[in-house]
Specification:
9 strands, alpha/beta
Length: 171
């Protein structure tokens, strides 16, 4: 009888780190350092923007841990953090950081597989401002409200960190 192989936590963390490297590269960052043995696990740069990927040791991310991370970010000149944990932030942490977009919360399960590598997931790309103007004319669109909307929580939009309100082509 066949039984599925269960992965160890270390194997899941390694796969999540590989996806993080692919994700920050796809976002236009240049990876400076990546290692599951360090904290931060990944350091990447894009112009003056500095991004860290941090694997949180506890299952849930609390407010105290996030505040300590924000202090550390400020001291090191880090502008963005991808904070990876088993269960994500607590509800209170989500509420506290609702307006702070410098920290993104990810779970290990969401990063264990790179969603953009699936054959059944269509390719997503941002439409340039020039092409957007052309499409508005061609389809007689006068307002952004007339375009179909992708939710901010869409997995591919989160992966690429597409800005809210921008037009996305799905092939």
């Amino acid at each position: 009888m066949w039984t599925p192989r269960t992965e160890t936590r270390t194997e899941l963390l390694e796969r999540a780190l590989v996806t993080c490297v692919e994700m920050v590269t796809d976002r236009g960052f240049e990876v400076q350092m990546a290692s599951a043995d360090h904290d931060p696990a990944l350091v990447a740069m894009r112009g003056d923007e500095k991004l860290h990927v941090v694997f949180h040791p506890e299952d849930k991310v609390g407010v105290k841990a996030v505040r300590a991370l924000q202090t550390e970010m400020e001291a090191q000149g880090v502008t963005r953090v991808l904070l990876v944990s088993t269960d994500g932030p607590t509800p209170f942490t989500k509420k506290e950081l609702a307006e702070d977009h410098s920290i993104e919360f990810w779970t290990i399960a969401k990063l264990a597989i790179n969603i953009t590598k699936f054959d059944i997931v269509p390719r997503h790309s941002l439409v340039s401002r020039e092409e957007e103007a052309e499409l508005r004319t061609r389809y007689h669109v006068s307002s952004d409200r007339e375009w179909p909307k992708l939710p901010r929580a869409d997995p591919v939009c989160r992966y690429y960190d597409y800005p809210v309100g921008r037009l996305v082509r799905i092939d």
